[in-house]
Amino acid sequence: MAGAPPLANVPRAHAREEKVVSEPYDFIVVGGGLAGCVLAERLSAGGAKRVLILEAGRPDYTNTIVRIPAGILRLFRSVYDWQFETGGEKFCNGRNIFVQRGKILGGSSCTNVCLHFRGSDEDYNEWGVPGWGANDVLPYFKRSQKDTTDRSPDYHGKDGIWVMSDVRYQNPLSKRFIQVGAAAGLGVNDDFNNWSRPQDGCGRFQVSEVDGERCSGAKAFLSRAQGRKNCVVRSNVMVKKIDFDASKTSTGVTYDLMGDDTMKQFKASLRPGGEVLVCGGAIASPQILMCSGIGPAKHLADHGIQCISNLPGVGEGLQDHPAAVVSFSTPKKGVSVTSKLRLFGGTNPFPVLQWLMFKSGLLTSTGCDHGAFVRTAAADKQPDLQIRFLAAKALTPDGMTTFTSFRNSKSHGDGYSFQSVAIRAKSRGSVRLVSSNSHVKPMIDGGYLSDPTDLATLREGIKLGRALGRRKEWAEYLGEEVYPGPSVQTDDEIDEYIRNTLHSANAFTGTCKMGTGNDAVVGPDLKVFGVNGVRVCDSSVFPAIPGGQTGTPTVMVAERAAAFILNPQVTVETYSEPAQAAVAA
Predict the structure, then answer these.
(1) 3-class state of residue 219 by DSSP
(2) How many Cβ atoms sit within 10 Å of the Cβ of residue 434?
(3) Checking DSSP bridges between strand 481-483 and strand 322-329, what pairing results, if any?
């Protein structure tokens, strides 16, 4: 159980878990990330249903460093991060790509950049799943949202509990970026979630923050459920597998404790008609299904796992938003957010005091809350490129490394950067088991750039970032290019730069695909094919990655899952098995 500190009092911990599993539950939620938090709140409301939340990560989502939006600089590669890596990316010169995933109640909503995007209405219509078109999902987007920006009520909810706002701080470079983008002909967009207009344009990005503080799934949803007697929340526990009876009906789950060298296992059971709701995300959800005997039969046999439901699509179809960076220096001193955070080689206490006292200032920003959506020459019908503008000079051409390197730097020069994100990426990878032990991290193949369209999008993004960075509208801020640098000019050189510096924008989806085809894992009702009493309710069910950060669509999926479970009158087409998919006897 590497990475987990040893239990301080093993007998006491075991006694506590024996009490947890002493009575059955109506719902067992595997994973206390963003989707799990939504389900905890919705399913336990009213007090009639017993709900158990099992999360492998930490419980301390109220920690100050998590609550501060700019605290993200200290969260990557920390105890709050699973710190996954992909293995030897074929189209990225064999590099391993760092994969950040939140290891805490609230999941990656506690460690992400807080951006609130749904994608477009076309994204959901193109999923082609009965009951999941744009008109079907929009009410569920609005249900959870508490918009504080007075944007159109046709597309924004006002009465939800997940607060959306504009960042309280605007750096002068970020303000200038909007002017530069408009002058460059990108257009201006004051609401990227308004489906009555195209997504194109530059502007401010809406964020999941409340009063200058991160509004994670745990803060918005789970905190309400934790006070209810019928909701039990356990952290630092690892689900080993879902348990089934002879009829392939789930009876509960088996789990153990992180840091427990005795490896004692506990069995949480379901009441008759109860369900296991898998919410581990696109990496962990297929892993737990496969460890439970649900997945490609041969792969399971290779790991000594009895196949209960032969679903070849489990672990396939992994998608992410790949990214690459253009960065400039500026002759203007003390203007970048990174230089403002440093004083005499250490942390500048003034922004910290400003946040602690007033919840204002530069710590209310994760750094990339301004940007644009653009159609490049590689685009189909919709924008294929997101530009995320950062009022900071990159420390390295790998944007994720810059995040983690900043905390170790004593000084940081001023500048501005453009992170190009292939926002509707077409490449697909996979998640596969390394071991039947769920404590062992799975093997991740990101499949980055396996579809050449994504490389073309990022190439155009690099060119656009360079063009924007050199425009005269920067005036007193105009500086010299740092990355890719003057040695990178031709298309071939740009492509090689992308292969050597590509990094993840942390938007993983697709490994338990929803649909009706032979590659589907769950039906439109989110029920896993070939077994009873199991649903998957997170980003892993997305048939295709939406054109925006994926936290908000994950909440929508969880809201719909809760509606299906609690309100049988909510209609959606159901299928007992995917077309042409064999179910093992």
Answers:
(1) helix
(2) 12
(3) antiparallel
